[in-house]
């Protein structure tokens, strides 16, 4: 595993726990943790249970005894590491967004395509797909339960930037993070909308906004929680991105990504309305799915709050009895399970780098649209 | 109409509005308002649209041009007025609880039985039955939709007595009010539970408690909102009553009536669990009914939040398009409608004084049980 | 009152009930109901309590004994009637949207300005402002409680057009209705957003969509619920409108108006996020306001569900004790109260025709933007 | 660890994960898993990561290289194992309920008292205390935030016995399980109520009921999910227990434990009402706490939905950023953390066996009360 921020903890938990609840065709061994600083890397490895550490990702990702490379670094370094790993014949799991630019993402998708020809696979880490309620929403849609899809309303709402004293961490700098709310959390909304609907965004019209344009510099560059210094710097990414989009299946979507939605902490919400019904999901209430069935008797229609904690639901039979809730990191365990199963079966795990590239292209199209007065912009530049 | 407190406003609104939305077989005329104080009665009559006022209820309820007597005075005066009106051949609508004691209630029920033999009918005002969602719950249960009923959980929660400065109004004095939370709001919970289940409580085990035992006296006796004086007096009724009960159909119920449930303003809640499903209602969310269907596919079960605002729902087609909410006083309009329809059809409107007597007997049984260490007590003294 | 559809019932209820709960400086008399068909007008007048009927609006609105003209006809007839009434020296209450085109609305606003110079006033009927929770949201914002406003998320969601058998009523025809979801319900979202924030939309970028493009013709033209014929016609208005907008105070808004949001019946939702807090409202839960306070202790922050049913809340002290809910039509009673109070005080009731014109200009800007690839469009054509 | 049912998986996860997120003073080693059947024990050990297995609990719990014994067997075997382990100088963590009878529990508490004199400690596993929102509720109450406590409403609602085909597993047999809903889930409600309030139940009045009195026998005895046979046997425990109780601090409580609450899967709910505020919790929504503050401005009072996922909240800073949810088994991780910390500090971990004994005495008092017509029964037999 390369990197050891907050995502490192989550991925480590996924690798550790997956074999304890699921019958995996191979047991993951947590071999090497890579970090730039040997001391902090060693501390992380000790805490999370990695056998060794390294400060040299290039040599680590080509070691003979390594089969899988898990990349949890900031987005600007994804491409170089992933391509090197794939070219070295390692399966790759890469955190989202795939890259900071569509160009890098294209190179990564190309490397993944080359590797796949040799049975080496790459996957991008949109774990929210693997929240059981989200997977179940996809299943309902795929089964035609809600009919022809007309509307998608997706939003990822946070509020940690409402506080003007939050310092200028890497996530607020365009050269490191690519974009702000759009790429960080909007990417999740896009992936989840496409996953649940089974449709792809073909064009978008968007607007982006930065409300707090200057913030205190970080005294050190270590993560979100570093100490603020007295100096200030310019925020170069968006606080909020709003866009509408058209899907290839005819649906119309509205999207919002905000780190300025006061009072909303981690609300990834999606509602999909179809000709026969609707589904509604909120990550702040992740064990439930709202389901509306137009075929129910007229006097009994309404959104049913399905607790997605029954053995009939995706992933659940491996866990607890009915009614016992799962949490945020269970998605990482499910991701580890699905990744290992696909790799051992010699099949492409989903979402692929091509899927990740597509999300990147949507992000890029939103940025171009926002830069050109919200003009409708195809998600493929040459489309 | 005899009396003109808060209930007088609600009843007046019912009589006024019912013919504007429902096609009634006869149009109510708001003839005489009776009150002890001529000035306040005149002010109320002017405001609420009554043609005349009187300070003499005895002569008012026997006037030839009066067909219906509506009683909204405190409970201790219900019996005398209602019996006089019935004996004078007037149809009677009497606010709940029917009386302050089971003895008075028995006399009233007897008078109602005598009158009914002559086509003169009496009804008691448990209006929450006529909230569309509550009526719909009853319909679902009556149709067997939730199967054999096992459990009933009913609570009426308010918090206006948490504040120790609330003065000692008539509702806190046993000689005027009969009991406290038990008779005032517990009576609603009992009636609603029996209405929805179609079963009657046969025995109860209860406990009652007064947490704030002294309160400032009222400088004047005018309602809940009067000015407090410096003197204090003893609270002689319960703040909270808890009881369990057995129904004649085999169900087991838990009941709570509280004016000390901090943060709950007017939460009359009931959930009925059966072998095939469940229904759940809360007066603080009165346009919705929770409905659970065990026959739904295993992965789609959950409580459906039915907005009881569709034309297929009870009472709704007379009002607004789907999705437009009703409020508290609509129940009084429905009550006026149902009362007029039954009277004009020459049939007994429900709930009858016999039903009201039964509720009174349950209240009395809870008081006896509470006085004897929560011993199980039949709701009929000679049962 | 000119017109007698669903809005006629609501307005009648407002005039009838307002003086029974509020102390008005003048008592409204429900004099003349105007309709094209004498029989249906007479039936409506009898049901709703109007003294007379007329089929000639021109003579009715100029009668000497008429002081106020209330217009509840479809939007295409608003301008002619309102201008005639204002020119005849009658105060006017006109249902929203003010008109079907910005041009008509401009003429109406001009007529209102002329009349106001003579102490004759006009108001447009955006009643949702007068839902107590919405008014209270405005009060909190105006007091600075949530600080500088950054984001507004407003949506009005219905689903009655999901059913493809719903016939082609006047609301689905551009020549009669002006626009579809945008003008009918989007107008409410715009007004409510501007009312609560105290800011005005200066430019918009939008998209509109019609998912069901053909529907059965109505056998008769009487309202939404008429009988469908075998023939079909083209739907000429939008099922869904999405737009983003910028406010003059710096806020960014996202708006949605949909009659295709499966499972949502009458969900006018708005959330306003500011630097110090947020407010959140949903018309399907209209007695509550969500309020988030960033100044609360860090471990106790969260959205507080305020039941806006306390005497301290707007309009409530006239109604019931704390915790007793209001319904849809109470807004019309509040509107009647506010209108009468302003007229008798000789002051301009709000929202004025100028406010209504502004909403119309926003609607027109959204249509122009949608017609030009979602280009950002000023809400004033010459801005 | 002795036993390896559903609780074994949860405890194993706790031991495994605790050192990965918390800085523990000692790292737990998962040494020996004890089970009656060597094959199933070995499979469980392999899956959950225990180094060895044994079929002889007596020798296992006295091994020199064992410091801690974790007991997750059915309740009837707790006493023998725990006493042996404590007498052998091993720290003990024992699943709830402490035992099947108050007599056994007394012996266990005595053994724990003897051991504690030698620095050896015992704890009982009421993990729901360690759900952060529950711990936070306790903190608020302990700080006096909600004032003097008046009412406690606690319920643990499940519905898995509504289905009459659920077979007669050990949990439905009095000789193995002690009691039914009362001991299994009612025990949690009692512990949580006492934990949050800091008060102890001194007397109770209860009723118990079995609605489905016969069920198919299990073909094999392995857990809840075994195969049903054609034969049927008598259910000898309660499906539902209802009781009221008085606390030593003056509060009055109502309690319900039900496996027949149709539609409720795992709803451990508690609301505590005090003179200054209230807290409300539901295990089906375990990341949130409802908090009502009577000191808030009158127009802003209401239950605040606090997402207990901020770094200021108990246990949270070890986990994810704000707004990321925890699940059911996190309580077991917190339990492992708290247990290890207390043991290493040489202090008594809470809840102690004495606390567990007290819960057992409450359960016994409820059973005695139910057997004597709901007579009020002290929770100490000689009290």
UniProtKB/TrEMBL annotation, chains A, B, C, D:
A molecular-function term among this protein's GO annotations: nucleotide binding
InterPro entries, alphabetized: Gfo/Idh/MocA-like_OxRdtase_N, Gfo/Idh/MocA_oxidrdct_glycsds, GFO_IDH_MocA-like_dom, NAD(P)-bd_dom_sf
All residue ranges annotated as the GFO/IDH/MocA-like oxidoreductase domain in the record: 137-279
Superkingdom assignment: Bacteria
Residues annotated as domain Gfo/Idh/MocA-like oxidoreductase N-terminal: 1-115
Keywords, sorted A to Z: NAD, Oxidoreductase
Annotated protein name in UniProt: Gfo/Idh/MocA family oxidoreductase
Organism: Cryobacterium adonitolivorans
Organism classification: Bacteria, Bacillati, Actinomycetota, Actinomycetes, Micrococcales
